[in-house]
Design goal:
Elements: E1 2-6, H1 11-27, E2 32-36, H2 39-44, E3 52-55, E4 58-62, H3 68-74
Parallel strand pairs: 1-2
Antiparallel strand pairs: 1-3, 3-4
Helix pairs in contact: 1-3
Length: about 80
C-alpha cells in the first residue's frame, strides 16, 4: 500500500502524516508513507484544499485532519 499526504507543510498536514503513521502501526499493515509538498503535484490530484490523503493513487480525503481510527477504516 502506498499512502501520500498532500500538503505544503502546515501543522494540519504534519498532524495528518503522524495520524497516518499511527494508523499503519495500529493496523499492522505494510505501507509506505510519502509527504507531497509540491503545489503542482497536489493540483495534479485535483486537490484544492489541504491536507489531503491519497491511498494507492486514489484521493480519499480533502481538507481535513482525519484521526488514526478513521484512517484505518480507509485501508
Amino acid at each position: 500500500m502506498h499512502i501520500k499526504v498532500l500538503g505544503t507543510g502546515c501543522k494540519k498536514c504534519t498532524t495528518l502524516k503522524a495520524n497516518v503513521e499511527e494508523a499503519i502501526k495500529n493496523a499492522g499493515i505494510d505501507a509506505t508513507v510519502e509527504k507531497v509538498e509540491d503545489v503542482q503535484a497536489i493540483i495534479g490530484y485535483g486537490v484544492m484544499s489541504t491536507p489531503a490523503l491519497v491511498i494507492d493513487e486514489k484521493v480519499v480525503s480533502k481538507g481535513k485532519v482525519l484521526k488514526a481510527k478513521d484512517i484505518q477504516k480507509l485501508f
